[in-house]
Amino acid sequence: MSKNSDVVLEVNNLKIHFFTDEGTVKAVNGIDFYLEKGKTLGIIGESGCGKSVSAHSILRLIPSPPGKIVNGEIIYHDSSLNKDNGVVHIEQLNKKGKEIRNIRTNKIGIVFQEPMSSFCPHYTIGHQVAEAILIHNDELNKEQAHEKTVELLKQVGIPKAADRINDYPHQFSGGMRQRAMIAMALSCDPEILIADEPTTSLDVTVEAQILELLEDIQAERGMAIMLISHNLAVVSEVADWVAVMYLGKVMEKAPVGKIINNPLHPYTKGLISSIPKLEGELEELQPIKGIVPNPIDMPLGCPFAPRCERKVSDLCDKEVPAEIEIKPQHYARCFIYSEEVE
Ligand SMILES: Nc1ncnc2c1ncn2[C@@H]1O[C@H](COP(=O)(O)OP(=O)(O)OP(=O)(O)O)[C@@H](O)[C@H]1O
Ligand SMILES: [Mg+2]
């Protein structure tokens, strides 16, 4: 990916493993990406490929044990910090570190995958958003926090926000709850917003509204967004760049247009041919055959090799292909493009 001064977060060769009684789960197995100011990186991949674990690691939310960052760097760039020219190595800071607390609470907002479990059922939505505001702004009194809550809920499109703040989470529809979650994530005025499957349980109309909301907020605030989804069609609506994950690795990444119009990796091609098209002739959908291997018992070679219909060499089963820039700004891990097998 093109690295420039707008990079706010950098993840380099990150590996996160879970050491369980059944064996080592290599949940994230060497991923690299950047987040840029005002841009959205879409992360897509099937269930269990390591999307949420990657997101949680940025906030140091990996339960340890059994989880551990075993390799790599997560670097936060902040020109307002003097230390090392504003570079903070998130994974090296201990949990009580002042900088990590500052980054975690004031610079990065997260919308978790499960909106219902993110809100406590016993408190009103208004109370919970106000609490979050007070954590980030200790100079505010309760009345000011209340005003800011109404303002934030209005901003995320909750009608009659001044009345709805007295509702409990179960009184909100799924879409409204998701909007309230976004409001909570925005309470710290973050530079980075991580949205983990923010539209998965919503119907298509509400999904479109939430995506539009994220775009509007980004245009207004210039945040970097990491948008996680298992649905490439959803991500392609709003992302600037897309990273396609499979079994803990990024198999392909590029600007969204290149991924959709000219996918290079057989896995991405499979994902695209399994998306129904709205225009043109009706085509038969081609789901990817086979199932994702158990992450405890990973294939020796390319993680996708056991399901790949375009294997080019024995190497596919023996070695993990390196990530290469196959075309300008278009990266993939696949021996099809490797000189070793030509
Ligand atoms: N606390 C844990 N202990 C052991 N394994 C874990 C733990 N948390 C996650 N994993 C494993 O790590 C892998 C990646 O999980 P992750 O939640 O990141 O997947 P995901 O891509 O977000 O999937 P989904 O689309 O279903 O949300 C999975 O194999 C999962 O079982
Ligand atoms: Mg997940």
Question: Can you lay out the helices and strands and say which pair or pack?
Answer:
Blueprint: E1 7-20, E2 23-36, E3 40-44, H1 51-58, E4 67-77, E5 87-89, H2 98-106, E6 108-111, H3 115-118, H4 125-136, H5 142-155, H6 161-164, H7 174-186, E7 192-196, H8 204-221, E8 224-229, H9 232-238, E9 241-246, E10 249-255, H10 256-261, H11 266-273, H12 315-318, E11 324-327, E12 330-332
Parallel strand pairs: 3-8, 3-9, 6-7, 7-8
Antiparallel strand pairs: 1-2, 1-4, 4-5, 9-10, 10-12, 11-12
Helix pairs in contact: 4-5, 4-7, 5-7
Strand content: 15-25%
The global form is globular
Ligands present = adenosine-5'-triphosphate, magnesium ion
Determine and state the CATH class: Alpha Beta
Biggest sheet descriptor: 8 strands, mixed
Radius of gyration: 21 Å
CATH architectural label:
3-Layer(aba) Sandwich
Give the strand tally: 12
Number of helices: 12
Summarize the structure.
With 342 residues, this protein is α/β, with parallel strands linked by helices. Helices cover 31% and strands 24% of the residues.
Characterise this structure:
The protein is globular. The protein has one domain (7-107, 190-341): P-loop containing nucleotide triphosphate hydrolases (Rossmann fold, 3-Layer(aba) Sandwich), CATH 3.40.50. The strands form 2 sheets. Strands 6-7-8-3-9-10-12-11 form an 8-stranded mixed beta sheet, sandwiched between helices. A hairpin with a 2-residue loop joins strand 11 and strand 12. Helix 5 crosses helix 7. The model has no long low-confidence stretch (mean pLDDT 88). It starts with 6 loop residues before the first strand and ends in a 10-residue tail after the last strand. It has helices at residues 51-58, 98-106, 115-118, 125-136, 142-155, 161-164, 174-186, 204-221, 232-238, 256-261, 266-273, 315-318; strands spanning 7-20, 23-36, 40-44, 67-77, 87-89, 108-111, 192-196, 224-229, 241-246, 249-255, 324-327, 330-332. It has 342 residues and is α/β, with parallel strands linked by helices. Helices cover 31% and strands 24% of the residues. It binds adenosine-5'-triphosphate and magnesium ion. The site of magnesium ion (MG) has 4 residues, from helix 1.
